[in-house]
Amino acid sequence: MAKLAKKQQPKQKNEEDVRILISRSRLQRRITEMAREIRKDFPNEPLHLVGVLKGAVFFLTDLGQQIPGDVSFDFIAVSSYGVGTHSSGQVRLTRDLDSSIEGKTVIIVEDILDTGMTLQYLLRIFDQRKPKCLRVAVLLDKPERRIAAVQADYVGFTIPNEFVVGYGLDYAERYRNLPDVGVLTLPTVATNAAKVG
Ligand code: IMP
Ligand code: MG
Asked: Which ligand 1 atom is the nearest neighbour of the CA of 111?
């Protein structure tokens, strides 16, 4: 029997894919600079870093290690995203801080500033708790998407309006473990389904 020529599999173009946007080395270089800026602004003060779970975990640990002197950590968790790539706009506190921030110099450490709804919510509840000083450090800023009138004091990278994953950022809890930040492309069908949620 004549051998059938193997059919070439067409290259799947419509599949989930991550394209690197910011490499791990660029992330580390910028985070070191941010740590310097922060310490320069508060040369002699104990700094209390509050990481917003879970996206800011790697950013907080890398930033925290680069800030010399007295630094403490706490974590808070909020939810605003479902499983898709679009925020529900509703922010909910899902885990509160372990200790009081009254009288402390607090730096909120966030992965990404998108619509600003999460940060607006956090600034409101933190202000009520009377910190000595309140600042915000975000690794990524997507200013095109802003709805709430908030801004960060320290910004790692300003990025275009694309959905990014990696270095703590997720899509439906996946990709957080990537060491770089990348742009996620979804198959057409899945993208449309995610928009519904
Ligand atoms: P905001 O409330 O719209 O500013 O969104 C803030 C939160 O939404 C971030 O802390 C992230 O958890 C999530 N988020 C926003 N944009 C992205 C993205 O491009 N990739 C992954 N998560 C995102
Ligand atoms: Mg998230």
From this structure: 10
Mutate to test the pocket of ligand 1, among 21, 80, 124, 173 (most ligand atoms within 8 A of CB): 80
Q: Does ligand 1 have an atom closer than 6 angstroms to the CB of 191?
A: no
Sign, CA dihedral 99-111-27-165, equals: positive
Could you report the per-residue pLDDT of 18-50, keeping only the tens digit for each? Answer: 999 999 999 999 999 999 999 999 999 999 999
Instruction: Show me where the domains of the chain are located.
Output: 23-80+90-160
Per-residue pLDDT band for 90 (boundaries 50, 70, 90) equals confident
CATH class of 23-80+90-160: alpha beta
Nearest to 117 by CA among 35, 52, 34: 52
